[in-house]
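Lab channel / #folding
Pinned by the channel admin:
"Please post every new chain as: sequence first, then the C-alpha cells as a reply. Keep commentary short and put observations after the output so the thread stays searchable."

First post following the new format, from NK:
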Amino acid sequence: MKTIDTDTLDAIRELVNIGVGKAAGQLNQMTGSPIRLQIPTITLVPFADILSAEKSILPGDVLSAVTLDFNGTLSGITAVVFPPESAILLVMVLTGEKEESPDLDAMRVEALKEVGNIIINGVMGSIANVLGERLTYSIPCYTEGSFASIAERRSTTAADEWVILARTNFLIEALHIEGDILLILEVGSLDHLVESILRTGNREGAG
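Reply from TO:
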C-alpha cells in the first residue's frame, strides 16, 4: 500500500485550494452569485477504483464533464463535472435561454466547455505558476456519461497504477447548482511535485 505523508498532502491540498479559489472567483463573476467551496480532499487511490462502477468516485450514470489532459513534469487529468440538472441550470443562467429552447443542447456544450476551461485554467495555471512548472495541455473535451467511462476515455494511465485524486465540491447556493473539480495526478509525477513544493517553500522562506 502506497502512502503519502501528511505534510505532502497538506501542500498539495493548499495548491489545489489556491487554484479552485481563483476559478471560483471567475465563476462568481460569470453567474453573479457567490460560490461555496469545500476544502479539497486528497487521496491516493488505484486508478482501477476510478474506473470501477461499484467504487465510483462520483455517483450517477450520466454526468456532464469537461476534461483536459496535461503533460510535462506533471501528468494527469483535470475534470469539471456537473450532474445533468446543474449543467442545464448553469447554461440557462449563462445564456438566458429557457430549458425548452431547441438550441439549449448546442449552447450547453459550448457554455459548459467555457466554464470548464476557466475553472481548469484557474487550477492548473495556479499550480504551474506557484511551482514554476511548464505543462502542455490537450484541447478541453466535453463528454457525458459515468465518471468511470469519462476517465477511461481520457486517460492513458493503466488501471493497475496509483493516482492522486484531489476533489473539491462547489455549490452556487442561490442557483441550486453544484459540481466537482477533480485533479487526477499520476503517481509517477509525485516525486517531482514534492521537490517543487519543497523548493518553492525554501525559496519563500529565504525571501
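NK: The chain has a mean pLDDT of 79.
TO: also worth noting, The chain has one domain: 6-206.
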